[in-house]
């Protein structure tokens, strides 16, 4: 059964109508606050009165980050937005917070430290409710940076990009589990994380690596149909066709090698199916190809 919810995984530093975080991001002269990621999230919710909960657990400055998102959503006409101030597992199990998750139409996970998200939410009733609503209802889950990386079932939680050619420098654990069979990395182009994600895929070749550029996102519909939005690029690393792979035998801190990783580079509008591993220039073309394949079989 296809998943009914929508997942929006953002690479970080998305335009919120405020000054950018340190570092200038080229936006190709487009106004992506009005035309881009946050606006797209509100379009999926499609009700200005709908409740949106912002979860800033990953952040070291949760109140400031929460207010920033509340302000950004307000500029888009969505004023029924609040922050769930969850800082530990006790907070995550509070009945009033659980009820707010039951009542809202979507959640937004902020950036920060993805290990905080998994260690605080893992195994909680709140996480199970979010998963169930995403699978069974039209429920929107969005997340940026750490909030995006934690979405997958396999999660990178640490790894120095400059040393990612060495076995053991990339550390992996279990994520929140909204997206199955993928590994998500964020700030991908800005922080040079190709080898970091490649090592994660080499260690898990059944998974598909998704490298998200800044101010860029993938929309995942039905749990497997991806579409790119935003001003940057998305890199797909597919380990399905890997031949030689010494990641299991190489010594720790020694370089690893892997043969035949398949790579796609996507920009806004491009689409990819996580199930069939098919790339298409547009989401419409992807749906048409999958429809024809279903009719043939």
Structure report:
This protein has 297 residues and is of the alpha/beta class. It has a single domain (6-296), classed as Rossmann fold (3-Layer(aba) Sandwich). Helix content is 30%, strand content 24%. It contains ten helices and 15 strands. The protein has helices at 32-35, 37-45, 62-75, 89-92, 95-103, 114-121, 125-136, 146-149, 194-203, 283-296; strands at 6-10, 52-55, 81-84, 106-109, 140-144, 154-159, 170-174, 182-185, 208-212, 216-221, 225-230, 234-238, 262-266, 271-273, 278-280. The strands form three sheets. The protein has a nine-stranded mixed beta sheet with strand order 3-2-4-5-1-10-11-14-15, sandwiched between helices. The protein is globular, with a radius of gyration of 19 Å.
Keywords:
24% strand; Rossmann fold; four-stranded mixed sheet; 297 residues; nine-stranded mixed sheet
């Amino acid at each position: 059964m296809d998943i009914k919810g929508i997942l929006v995984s953002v690479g970080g530093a998305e335009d919120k109508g405020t000054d950018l975080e340190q570092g200038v991001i080229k936006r190709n002269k487009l106004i992506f606050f009005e035309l881009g990621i946050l606006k797209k999230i509100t379009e999926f919710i499609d009700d200005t009165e709908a409740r949106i909960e912002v979860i800033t657990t990953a952040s070291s400055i949760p109140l400031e980050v929460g207010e920033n998102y509340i302000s950004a959503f307000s500029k888009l006409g969505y004023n029924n937005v609040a922050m769930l101030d969850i800082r530990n597992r006790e907070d995550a199990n509070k009945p009033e917070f659980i009820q707010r998750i039951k009542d809202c139409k979507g959640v937004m996970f902020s950036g920060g430290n993805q290990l905080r998200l998994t260690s605080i939410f893992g195994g909680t009733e709140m996480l199970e409710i979010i998963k169930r609503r995403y699978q069974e209802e039209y429920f929107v889950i969005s997340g940026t940076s750490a909030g995006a990386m934690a979405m997958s079932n396999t999660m990178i939680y640490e790894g120095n990009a400059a040393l990612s050619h060495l076995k053991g420098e990339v550390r992996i654990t279990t994520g929140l589990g909204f997206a199955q069979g993928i590994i998500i990395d964020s700030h991908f182009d800005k922080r040079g994380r190709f080898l970091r994600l490649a090592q994660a895929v080499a260690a898990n070749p059944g998974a598909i690596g998704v490298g998200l550029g800044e101010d860029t996102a993938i929309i995942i519909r039905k749990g497997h149909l991806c579409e790119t939005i935003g001003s940057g690029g998305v890199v797909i690393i597919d380990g399905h066709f890997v031949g030689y792979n010494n990641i299991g035998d190489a010594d720790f801190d020694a370089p690893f090698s892997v043969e035949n990783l398949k790579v796609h580079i996507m920009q806004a509008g491009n689409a990819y199916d996580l199930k069939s591993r098919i790339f298409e220039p547009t989401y419409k073309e992807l749906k048409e190809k999958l429809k024809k394949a279903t009719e043939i079989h």
